[in-house]
Write a structure and sequence with these properties.
By secondary structure, the chain is mainly alpha-helical. It contains 7 helices and no strands.
Length: 157
């Protein structure tokens, strides 16, 4: 890592990490405007990916930190998808059709809803881990130190 990168480089490095938290205010604004809770999948990956892809050639720090951020976001997204599949299988006894699950007044619909409520705590913890690590990485890299995300699978090397 280079010593004392200039301010512009450090801001782009910080934005590589903060871009992944953009899904929070966007979902909050959509919930307020549309009066519904909407989830935009993969937004936590797209912003760091766009920043990294456009700025990686400018400086090695942007390249390294962009990859770290993207790897962490992909990893947490995969963990969340795996968790959702596990909960769905537990709730549906592995043999129900999607139409049975989506039927409004069915017993299966209530059971799936109850399972998602019961098992949402690990998903909330994972989301909190993602948010805290992204903020921590942004602050740490802005002051010129390197940050290593926990539980990260290295997709981009």
């Amino acid at each position: 890592m280079t010593k004392n990168p200039d301010q512009k480089i450090r801001i782009w490095v910080m934005l590589c990490h903060l871009g992944s938290t953009l899904w929070l205010p966007i979902n909050f604004l959509l919930a307020l405007l549309l009066n519904k809770n909407l989830f935009i999948p993969l937004l936590n990956i797209f912003m760091p990916l766009i920043i990294w892809e456009n700025k990686k050639a400018e400086h090695l720090l942007i390249d390294i930190n962009g990859k770290n951020s993207i790897n962490f976001q992909i990893s947490t997204t995969i963990y969340m998808i795996i968790w959702m599949i596990i909960v769905l299988f537990m709730a549906t006894d592995c043999g129900s059709s999607l139409s049975e699950i989506l039927a409004e007044n069915s017993e299966l619909n209530r059971r799936v809803y109850n399972y998602f409520q019961m098992f949402s705590f690990p998903a909330i913890l994972l989301g909190l881990l993602q948010f805290v690590c992204s903020i921590s990485a942004a602050i740490t890299t802005y002051i010129g130190k390197s940050y290593h995300y926990p539980l990260t699978i290295k997709f981009l090397k």
